[in-house]
Specification:
Largest sheet: 11 strands, mixed
CATH topology of the largest domain: Thiol Ester Dehydrase, Chain A
Number of helices: 9
Order of helices and strands: EHEHHEEEEHHEHHHHEEEE
Number of domains: 2
Distance between the termini: 40 Å
Oligomer: single chain
Mean pLDDT: 85
Length: 333
Amino acid sequence: MKIVLPTENYLYYLFQYYSRFFRNLLFPKFSRTRAHQSFPPSYTGIYSFTDKTINRWYRLFELDRKHAPWINFPYFCPATIILFFELLSDLNIRFKDMLFARWNIHRVSPGVRFLAHKQYQISITASALKALTKTSIILCCTTEIKDPHSNESIAHATSFFKIKNRHNFYKDLLKRYQNQNQNLNSPLLSSYSDHLFLGLSQQKATITPTLATHSCDFFIPENMGLKFGRVSGDFSITHTTHFTARLFGFPKAFIQGLCIGSYLIKHITLKLQQPITSLEVYYCNQVYVNQCVRLNFKRSSTQENFYYFEIVDELKRLLVKGSFSTEHLQMTA
């Protein structure tokens, strides 16, 4: 299904997010799966943004656009979030059961920047689903960004969500994927071992500071979750206030997964003076607001322009880990 999404309309995305969020929260058994819709469900949106959007992202992450114009923030966030909630409604997945486990984005055209006043076609599909344990499942969503005129692929991303399966709530959905979608389930999820998603919160940091390690410290402001929601469209109440975060069992608010991804894009690009061509992120623990964290990353000993990274808090607890690759390009302001 194709949706045309408005540009620069903060109130639209605020209303769309919370109307979908509370419908999902208050009516967990509500499903409006359409008989004529293909399975697995897929949505496509046409989205564009202006220079105002770019400037808001740069201001949020305290950057001067004139001195670092090559940084590619995920300006397409508002579109993907709205399309993602459409998928959740069709699959009857409860938002409160979900945790972001892994995110990967790959630039097909590394030297190309996302440009203002240009239309992009964004497609998102709930591509695969499988049981992880007796009480949890993994949902895989794939996203592709294209030029709608040339149909050229610009970037693609894969997101993995760990979902609590209390009382076997999703048994019918699991059976449907197993019966009708084995050809899509296999290549996307079978290549990732279950241990990559199990015990993430107990994993320890392994990158130790040496002369070959790049490090930088940065502070997560108190209201970063709310500020990021204003530019990204992700207004989840676990990110915006401490009170609502505690209602979901967290001690205080924590920032969005794509917010930490944007921090990574900023600091890595500035440190290496090279654009990122691919980024893989595993979310081990929540990155809470009002704290200082440290990013450590080092080059692979076997692959050129390939790095491993970790983010730890002041107690050396592992918050985020992953890998990225860069492109040797001449970047000028």
